User: What shape does this take?
Amino acid sequence: MITAGQSAPLQSLRSRAPLGLAAISIASGIFLARHYQRPANLWGWSAGLLISCALIALYNRSDRLARFTIVLALICAGGFAESATPSPRITAPPVQFLSGERVLITGHVTNDGSSLAGGSRERFDLQTETIQLGDTQFSRPTGIRISVFVHGAGFAPKANAQDPEEDEAGGEKMFQPLNYGDRISLSAKLRQARNFRNPGAFDYEGYLRGLGISALGSADADSITVLPGQSGSTLGRWRSRIRRSILSHINSQPSLINAPLWKPEDAALFAAMIIGDDSLIGRNVREEFQQTGVYHLLVVSGMNVGILAFAVFFFARWLQAPDWAASILTIALSTFYAFIAGMGVPIQRAVLMLSVFLITRLFYRDRAALNATGFAALVVLVWSPTALFEAGFQLTFLALFAITGISVPLLERTSNRYRAALAHFDSTAYDLNIDPRIAQLRLDMRLVVDRLARFTGNFIARWLVLGMVRTSLAAFELLLVSTITQAVLVAPMRCYFHRATLIGMPANILVLPLAGVMLNSGVLAIALSYFFMPLARVAAMVASACLHWTLVCLTWLAHFPVAQWRTPDLNFVLWLVAGAGILICYLTVRQPRKWMARKFITPVGLIALFASALLVAVARPQPDLRHDALEITAIDVGQGDSLFIVSPQGKTMLIDAGGSLGPLHSEFDYGEDVVSPYLWSRGIYHLDVVVLTHAHGDHIGGLSRIVENFSPSELWLGINPETPALKKLLEVAELHHVHLQKHVMGDDFAWAGANIRVVSPPPDWQPKLQPRNDDSLAFIISFGRTSALLTGDLERKMETFVAAAMNAEGRHADLLKIAHHGSATSTTPELLAVVKPSFAIISDGFRNPFGHPRAIVLERLQTAHVLTYRTDMLGVVSFWLDGNQVSAQPALLGPADNR
Assistant: This one.
């Protein structure tokens, strides 16, 4: 009974899902401890004191006070768990081994090798036994991720005292992927795993640390030698063997089988969906799934586990297995599936929640779902408090909360009541025991069946009428669950993927009905391929048909403009709006039955949820800009260039967007993965101007995605050769209706409160067939009495030309963007003598292979008394020119200097 003054919704939460309330309390404590750091013993003593207070309250029969203090105790327990949990410690090689010199490594493979984009590289992880550099040896076990470069046709790993294998067609040596437990030796260059030092950047170091990897390495295929013996665990080797066997049946069948199950492009998708091998999935495919809000289909996620588990449980019950036996079989096969698919953290959570749900439903059927979700979250948070801040945890449990906490109660009041009309359809006695309105519906349905039976017969009439009702109810349930889940997930989806997920609801409605058929048919096809291929091909055809329907739907939806919307980071207010909408909806949906007469309560909650979701999806917070100064920020893009400029009137400009150099290009996109997250972190959703200095890969590489993501009004160019990269950029600019402007030396114009004077290239500049550093578009941008010279990659010849022109005009600059990343061919003494900068910024990569910035350039800057900042040491660096002085602020060190 609810006592006076007690909150009915909270009482409902406690009575129906006490473990859910416990999980929320623990999560709150973890969040507070992360943002308001206090000693672990303070949290621990507080939790103990509150537990004592709860016991005293229970002794005095004060239930409300006891519950309140227990919740506070759990909050403090969460804070203690976060504060007391030590950071994972992994062994890293000494600094001298990470200098870029080749080292000799002996170790064993800890996961099966996989191909990377383009087929010219393989990747695998290994645990070292020894690392040798000259006479120095490091013998502590270390986790390293190795990228293997396969030149030409590639080479096989050289077996001990044996010749490499030869390809039958041409006699060329082929590289064979390595497997778990293989002992190898190889020559590699090691480097430290390092994040881009920008706000909003992905924590790559933390991701690798979670996998036990402390360093990255690159090696040539012909340097790898397979050593005798095996290492690792027996269980791990069995897993590797089973996984490779399954992948061989997915991708290319054994020699005894003439035709494969699927075409290569379909096989790559099924390998990702079923077994978690996404090595053959291109970035364009991933982004198409992300744009339409169904990325969970492409990866082995909790949804995959749930679909396969449901099929197993249903089949077991169809075979008349007892409830407990079906539950045990489902848990066992789900655990085996998770083990084969990699036992990633999301899969572990899904199996844990599934196991808890199936066990608790045997004892507490009416409260299993929400309690199971709460218990699974509770176990994960106690075991690993940092999981609270992981995208996978948040998305998984928010989706489960949307289903079990909101959708299920709504279904109980709506479609489940009408499903009762289908039970014991011919029994009139059953009509007396159900709601009169449902009984009347049954009478109407029988009447329709009787009328229809005159033309089709009774069996067909029953099948048509009941089938139509069941189909309508299923469609309604799918629509309701999908819509509510998408609304609940809007905030984290925007936060992690920077997409407005408005297209997610129709996408899920179109593809989810067949997702279960597709995945289960795919698994069945693989299983049957071991025994009877003709039947396996039938199952594979069903799976392929479902897959092709999914791809057709996603391709169609991805072309809608709303699917292309990119959104900046959420601010605190929008997070509050999202949370308030979810909470209001939950409290109104889980209302006690005595409120049922007030039918407006639930619709109000749903309106609050959908209104808040729409607002969060499309709202654009005020960008983080300063309007009283000219801002010039050097973004850390590694060995490349990217400058973000904000005019005194708040207009925005991006000069270059980084990129990679060399013939080998991964699917990593500097525009999407480095520059865009920084701009989104500042609330930027539109750029006024994008500038390309010249067409080298480390400047132009990320610009196409910048144009797609931020729809700039103008694109400024100098004089460049027509390279494929430039043609692609111009095509993207035309598609997004970007106005092109060419600038050459002598152009002088105002721009949003600042003034720009172009100093290179000359109007008569003749580019070569390939881009050159001296093609760079360079200009002076000034505000009041302060100015900056932005040089691109100009070298000595053009710097001399620029210096002469500036000297003739009597110009100087307070800030100098050092050309060509600090190369010795740039930043000449003559230029420094004319420009007379007080500050300089060098954009270069950490321990880059070119040796930038060169010592001679740093000496020149020191001799000229220039205060120099470097992105490889400091990360993103911002300069503010207020018209009278320049101030600098490195992101990692705070305010540095004013001049």
About this structure: The mean pLDDT is 85. The first strand starts at residue 102 and ends at 109. The two ends are 71 Å apart (CA to CA).
